TrEMBL record:
Keyword field: Membrane, Transmembrane, Transmembrane helix
Source organism superkingdom: Bacteria
Transmembrane segments: 7-28, 83-101, 139-156, 168-195, 207-229, 289-309, 321-340, 346-366, 373-391
Species of the source: Candidatus Woesebacteria bacterium RIFCSPHIGHO2_01_FULL_40_22
Record bears the keyword Iron-sulfur: no
Stated name of the protein: Glycosyltransferase RgtA/B/C/D-like domain-containing protein
Length: 485
């Protein structure tokens, strides 16, 4: 009994810890310091202003009060230690996995499919960004979106009004977590269609066009109100990477999000293209990782194609076809808010879309033999493991956190020196001139300019970056000593 009931849970938890336990050892970096600064608790009025959708809070153009300001306010309660926040983040990760299980079973699919979906999701290499970077807001909004969908399905099955109202409330909480939650009403619509036409007997007879319109109207009304305030009052983020492109280039964006969903490294986007041209530096510097990654990826694709061909006829049954279509639309609809931003592609945007992706793969595995499924899951895990190791060595998140941790230790160990100065300059040495980036500017980006010092040393001194700011009254710090090379 124990083995049947808890085998998958143990495998998932152990596999997840093996892959992601290193994330607990990392510090803050970059945007973390900015959000820590604006989330510093002062008065109740200041705290409540986080939820004011009529104006941006302290220049923060993302309306994400629950997952940003409220979340980082907790850091101040724990003396700015990142560990409690990482524990909360990991707990949210586990909750997301549980909700995926609930969604799959509520859709009327098998527990075997649900367990495999959760395993694929929880061991995906795309979880790197959302577990290592504390300033990503992905798990919070994903939890509320999944809850909104699950609760509405329960309402359709049980007809308890409380579940419908809770679905609406969780939609509001999702919007207060991240703007990409605007896809929720559309995910609910495709869920309606799936439950209606996939012949789910417990809800099929209850679903009509009039029922759908009646139930969906409050969601779209809330969405319209939210968009009004965001467009005409609060505003949206802007910058060089936030450039909308509705050209056929979207196919390239879908290709990369699909490839990342199969555990290929995010960094490949910088080494492949235009077309299929591969920068030789990829294998010159990272062959120890890339060779096994390529081998495992080829095995993974071969297994998928083999299972697809051998089980081809099974996919044309009524329920199978609708399950595949539902999962595909779930993936694409969830991606829509970032699909037309080709210069702003990141794996952490797959937090919600990946749900649809893993359901498709789990469905394919469930139609195959137990041996084929086991081999595929093992290949998936080891491909993710190697990709995560490569990513941790190269990604700006982990490198920035290491650098920030060194800077933090330096200032803690030399606190007496800095009491004598009100001006500090991170300088570059002549030996740094051959580097592609000035160390002082790397430090500036890593510390979010002044924000690190606003958080840890408020009002103590002013910090500058670069040799142009050197003066007799400034304390000079060689920037390169913190970079790690």
């Amino acid at each position: 009994m124990f083995k049947r009931k808890y085998f998958w849970s143990l495998i998932i938890v152990i596999s997840t810890l093996i892959l992601f336990y290193p994330s607990f050892n990392y510090f803050y970096t970059n945007d973390d310091f900015f959000v820590l600064n604006i989330s510093k608790p002062s008065t109740l009025g200041n705290f409540l202003s986080y939820f004011d959708i009529t104006r941006a809070h302290q220049g923060f153009t993302h309306f994400r009060p629950l997952t940003t300001q409220v979340f980082f306010t907790l850091a101040w309660l724990f003396n700015l230690s990142p560990i409690p926040l990482r524990i909360i983040m990991f707990a949210a990760f586990l909750i997301t996995g549980y909700l995926i299980y609930k969604l799959v079973t509520e859709l009327g699919l098998t527990r075997k499919m649900a367990n495999m979906s959760v395993f694929l999701y929880m061991t995906s290499a795309t979880n790197f960004g959302r577990l290592y970077s504390l300033s990503t807001q992905e798990f919070g909004y994903t939890i509320f979106v999944l809850l909104s969908v699950i609760l509405l399905i329960k309402y359709l099955k049980q007809n308890h009004p409380i579940t419908y109202y809770l679905s609406l409330i969780t939609f509001i909480l999702a919007l207060a977590s991240k703007e990409t939650a605007i896809v929720t009403p559309f995910l609910l619509l495709i869920t309606f269609i799936y439950l209606k036409y996939a012949k789910k007997p417990e809800v099929e007879r209850k679903l009509s066009l009039s029922t759908a319109l009646k139930l969906m109207f409050p969601y779209f009304l809330l969405l319209a109100a939210y968009l009004y305030f965001r467009i005409f009052h609060y505003g949206f983020a802007s910058g060089d990477s936030y450039i909308w492109d509705f050209s056929p280039r979207v196919v390239n964006t879908i290709f990369w999000y699909g490839s990342w969903s199969l555990n290929v490294p995010e960094m490949l986007v910088d080494f492949i293209g235009p077309g299929f041209h591969i920068n030789p530096n990829l294998f010159k510097f990272w062959s120890d990782y890339m060779i096994p990654i390529c081998i495992l990826f080829i095995i993974e694709i071969t297994l998928l194609v083999y299972m697809l061909v051998t089980n081809f006829k099974k996919f044309f049954t009524h329920n199978s076809l609708f399950t595949i279509l539902y999962s595909a639309f779930f993936f694409l609809v969830s991606l829509t808010p970032v699909l037309f931003l080709p210069l702003h592609k990141f794996t952490f945007y797959l937090t919600l879309p990946l749900v649809g992706f893993v359901i498709v793969i789990a469905f394919l595995l469930s139609t195959s033999s137990q041996l084929q499924s086991a081999i595929y899951l093992i290949v998936w895990f080891f491909l993710s493991f190697i990709t995560l190791n490569l990513t941790s060595e190269t990604n700006w998140i982990t490198q920035g956190e290491k650098t920030a941790k060194r800077v933090n230790a330096y200032f803690q160990n030399n606190g007496d020196i800095f009491t004598k100065y009100d001006k500090i300059v991170f300088i570059d040495t002549p030996e740094d001139l051959d580097l592609p980036w000035k160390p002082s500017q790397i430090i500036r980006t890593t510390l979010s300019d002044q924000n690190y010092f606003y958080v840890y040393y408020p009002g103590n001194f002013r910090v500058y970056y670069g040799n142009d700011y050197v003066s007799a009254d400034a304390y000079e710090i060689k920037a390169r000593q913190f970079i790690g090379y």
